[in-house]
From TrEMBL:
The keyword Mitochondrion does not apply. Mn(2+) binds at residues 95, 97, 129, 153, 347. Its cofactor is Mn(2+). The Mn(2+) ion enhances activity. This is Amidohydrolase. Keywords: Hydrolase, Manganese, Metal-binding. NCBIfam families: amidohydrolases. PANTHER family: CLAN MH, FAMILY M20, PEPTIDASE T-LIKE METALLOPEPTIDASE (PTHR11014:SF169), PEPTIDASE M20 FAMILY MEMBER (PTHR11014). It comes from Dethiosulfatibacter aminovorans DSM 17477. Pfam families: Peptidase_M20. InterPro entries: Amidohydrolase (IPR017439), Bact_exopeptidase_dim_dom (IPR036264), Peptidase_M20 (IPR002933). GO terms for molecular function: hydrolase activity; metal ion binding.
Length: 371
């Protein structure tokens, strides 16, 4: 990577870090990135509302390749005393999306200056953390006949500067599930005159281990209790409504759907038994992310060609990634570049994206784009 391009990308990364924005609120972030590309490249920049992409049109135009970076931040206070600390209270780039965006921008600089035999689409995607960004950006794949799409995520606990890849499922499917049960209030001294959902909720929780048992599932299945919100803070009133919030997760999407179906079925049975009304709502839905073997092979080969350490991931990450939406539409792969085995973990107060990884990501993307 050219020294000047790295310096521009590093400065950009720190500017993004200082001005983090939550999912679906990335107005400044998007505008700043678009301005950067318009000022430093001759690429076509296409505004799509909450997201955008830049396009390098090759004279040869052999293939249409896309590379994605996520641009949103998370709800976490910036507690580190660094020069580029977040200026937005309660919001920070503690997952490294500032680095992903800067890497893609740096890659765009290199392609704009050096060219490519392929048409290259640089996709800057909003709302990865909530799982709905990629689903909205799928039109890029469909409208431009994208042959292949790639992305990376930085990750702690992996050797520094290493490329980590896996064929097949690399990130689990998951979603947030809220079960709302509503009965009828009564005086606490006469609970039999009301309909209290407490027992139904407790039975739902107690049965969850049976539904997630390895004995009845082919892959890893989890159900994590996030919150139980029941009744009012009034000792004279028997609870009449309650919410049970769960995160359901599975290695395979079909087993996530099966778990959801079984929880809903069990809840409706208990609601009927106890005379309650039951409703369900969902958020932060992520598909399983399944790499295509042909594409992950290119990631491996690119890493080896560059002299990087390439490791096979022994199992999929339990954490989810909305990149899986793209991989339902076309070939592609996501890989992980190591922050270091002892580096602070993402989503922790001590974390800050290592700037040098920008060089690694750009080199990797450039080599993949040549294949």
């Amino acid at each position: 990577m050219k020294t000047n391009n790295f310096e521009l990308a590093r400065r950009l990364r720190r500017e993004l870090h200082q001005n983090p924005e939550l999912s679906n609120q990335e107005c400044w972030t998007k505008k700043h990135l678009m301005n950067f590309l318009n000022s430093n490249t001759s690429l076509e920049v296409v505004d799509k509302g909450k997201w955008f992409y830049a396009l390098y049109k090759s004279e040869k135009g052999n293939r249409n390749l896309a590379f994605r970076a996520d641009i949103d931040a998370i709800k976490m206070e910036e507690s580190m005393a660094i020069p580029h600390a977040s200026k937005n209270p309660g919001v920070s780039h503690k997952c490294g999306h500032d680095g992903h965006a800067a890497s893609l921008a740096g890659f765009a600089l290199e392609i704009d200056q050096n060219g490519s035999d392929n048409n290259i689409f640089f996709l800057f995607q909003h709302a990865e953390e909530t799982g709905d960004g990629a689903e909205q950006c799928i039109e890029l794949i469909r409208e431009n006949d994208i042959d292949e799409i790639f992305a990376y995520h930085n990750m702690s606990g992996m050797p520094y500067n290493s490329v980590n890849i896996k064929d097949g499922t690399i990130n689990c499917a998951s979603k947030g599930m809220t079960i709302h049960l509503e009965g009828a209030p009564s005086h606490a001294s006469e609970p039999e005159k009301g309909k209290n959902p407490a027992l139904a909720i407790s039975k739902i929780v107690s049965i969850l281990p049976e539904l997630t048992s390895p004995a009845v599932n082919k892959g890893m299945v989890l159900c994590t209790v996030i919150q139980i919100d029941l009744g009012e803070k009034a000792f004279g009133v028997s609870a009449s409504k309650g919410d049970l919030r769960l995160t359901i997760r599975a290695l395979y999407e079909d087993e996530l759907n099966k778990l959801q179906y079984n929880i809903e079925k069990m809840t409706l049975f208990l609601a009927y038994h106890y005379g309650l009304e039951a409703t369900f709502s969902y958020n932060d839905s992520f598909p399983e992310t399944t790499n295509h073997d042909e594409s992950s092979a290119k990631v491996r080969l690119a890493g080896i060609d560059l002299g990087l350490d390439v490791f096979e991931m022994p199992e999929a990450f339990r954490g989810s990634e909305d990149f899986g939406h793209y991989l339902k539409e076309t070939k592609g792969a996501i890989c992980y570049i190591g922050n270091g085995t002892d580096y602070p973990h993402v989503h922790s107060h001590e974390y800050d994206f290592p700037d040098e990884l920008i060089k690694t990501a750009v080199r990797l993307f450039k080599r993949i784009s040549e294949m």
